Automatic annotation (TrEMBL):
Residues 13-213 form the Tetrapyrrole methylase domain. Keywords: Cytoplasm, Methyltransferase, rRNA processing, S-adenosyl-L-methionine, Transferase. This is Ribosomal RNA small subunit methyltransferase I. Belongs to the methyltransferase superfamily. RsmI family. PANTHER family: RIBOSOMAL RNA SMALL SUBUNIT METHYLTRANSFERASE I. One of its GO terms (molecular function) is rRNA (cytosine-2'-O-)-methyltransferase activity. One of its GO terms (cellular component) is cytoplasm. It comes from Candidatus Lactobacillus pullistercoris.
Length: 284
């Protein structure tokens, strides 16, 4: 077990700092302050971030940290933080770590007992989700999918069956093909939203059935950045939590079943492990 205070004094630490996904005014006051005060800014692309920092009036030392150098760069950053340096990690846009670099560095910090301090802020998937009109609980975020059609189809089957909202990112030049592939797996009337150019001047939501949205993009070449959301499968059985499952076991026992049989039956019907249900039942 490890307990880590984000506000331990005089220690090096890693700040994970979200940056705007389009609208520069979405930088937070705190993000600006941390980017100004950190000893270093580790940036995915120092040129892209240099332009952003210039625009928001932040002048600081930058270190390049991207997916191709992160394995080699992470130990160097760890050494700096061990000596007391604070590092603010940013990606080109949105939250670091979310389909962006940062994960390896966070892992290394945790291993080395260096505090990791996350700042809240913009991320494209959460921004799209809250305006999609689909239930936000539960949701599954997939990031970018495989480019292979067969591998995409496996993921699309999960989306087809999932009783929550599914979200993924796609590049504009691949979108029409990916939606066609999605349409081959989903029922034609399943609702889909394409959230385009979020927070920017051309922000737009294209909502409709998968059949409509797929046809639309086959006829109108997609431009800009996209988040794709697939509505929940409302026919799928809702996954019950442990308290509800235990209630069902108790009900079956009241109706005359043995505890063992009741646990076995409820576990089978609700696709949970019999042993886990047994343990949870007897702990409670
Ligand atoms: N770290 C980012 C985040 O927190 O959302 C994601 C970075 S990922 C490399 C870039 C992808 O995010 C884009 O290809 C697009 O799918 C999505 N994205 C980023 N900005 C967007 C925007 N303004 N509107 C729609 N999608 C966006």
């Amino acid at each position: 077990m490890q307990r880590q205070s984000s506000y331990a004094k005089d220690n090096g630490k890693l700040y994970l700092v979200p940056t705007p996904i389009g609208n520069l005014e979405d930088i937070t006051i705190r993000a600006k302050q941390i980017l100004t005060e950190a000893d270093y800014v580790a940036a995915e692309d120092t040129r892209t971030s240099g332009i952003l920092l210039e625009k928001i009036g932040v002048h600081n030392r930058m270190i390049s940290f991207h997916k191709y150098n992160s394995k080699q760069r992470a130990p160097e950053l760890i050494e700096l933080m061990k000596k007391g340096a604070t590092i603010a990690e940013i990606s080109d846009a949105g939250m670091p770590v979310i389909s962006d670099p940062g994960y390896i560095l966070v892992q290394e910090c945790i291993k080395n007992d260096i505090p990791v301090v996350p700042l809240p802020g913009p991320s494209a998937f959460a921004t799209a989700l809250i305006a999609s009109g689909f239930d936000a609980q539960p949701f599954t975020y997939y990031g970018f999918l495989s480019r292979k059609s067969s591998e995409q189809k496996e993921v699309f089957k999960q989306m087809r069956d999932f009783h929550g909202t599914s979200i993924f990112y796609e590049a504009p030049h691949r979108l029409a093909k990916t939606l066609k592939n999605l349409a081959s797996v989903l029922p034609a009337d399943r609702q889909v939203v394409a959230a385009r150019e979020l927070t920017k001047i051309h922000e737009e939501f294209i909502r409709g059935t998968i059949s409509e949205v797929s046809t639309y993009f086959a006829e109108n070449a997609p431009r800009g950045e996209f988040v794709i959301l697939v509505s929940p499968n409302t026919d799928a059985p809702k996954q019950l939590g442990w308290p509800e499952l235990i209630e069902l076991v108790n009900k079956n026992v009241e109706d005359g079943q043995s505890k063992k049989d009741a646990i076995k039956e409820v576990a089978k019907e609700h696709h949970v492990s019999k042993n886990e249900l047994y343990d949870t039942y007897h702990q409670g």
